[in-house]
Amino acid sequence: MTPIVVELPSPVLLLVGREDFDPPRSFGDATCVATADCVATGIRPRAAGPTTVTLVADRPARGLVELGSHVIETEGMLSLRDVYSREYANIGVEPGHVAVTAWGDDPAGPGELVLQVQPAP
Questions:
Q1: In the sheet that 12-16 helps form, which strands lie side by side, from edge to edge?
Q2: 120 pairs with which residues across the strands?
Q3: What is the 3-state secondary structure (H, E, C) of 54-96?
Q4: Secondary element (H or E) of residue 114
Q5: Burial, 102: exposed, middle or buried (Cβ in 10 Å; 0-12, 13-18, 19+)?
């Protein structure tokens, strides 16, 4: 996928696998958390500038930090959304489960976020 640039009203980006999804309720000390059908990643606040987001199949070649790895359920489409459910991008995947690994340039709130999506093991 071509990278997209987002400036969200809330510094949380969601990757959802179902239309009727259940978002995580808190982050605790993590930057990336998940439920059975949603991965939530904290990104930099709008005041700090935009965040570049890319969905990929392979691990990023450059030195980004792993923010979290999760398996989520999907109906065959992954949708990148903000907390108000506005959609920024989507990709088709096989229905079932996918493994999502979030990579970023800053573990506390990345300005570059790469979401690696692969079939679940």
A1: 32-34, 38-42, 12-16, 77-81, 87-92
A2: none
A3: EEECCCCCCCCEEEEEEEEEECCEEEEECCCCCEEEEEECCCE
A4: strand 112-119
A5: buried
Which residues are bridge partners to 4 per DSSP? 53
pTM of this prediction exceeds 0.85: yes
- Residue 40 φ then ψ, to 5°: -115, 130
Phi and psi dihedrals of 69, rounded to 5?
A: -135, 130
CB 23 within 8 A of CB 14: yes
Separation of alpha carbons 33 and 41, rounded Å: 7
- 100: tokens are 């999502």
- 58-113 pLDDT, tens per residue? 988 778 999 999 999 999 999 999 999 999 999 999 999 999 999 999 998 899 99
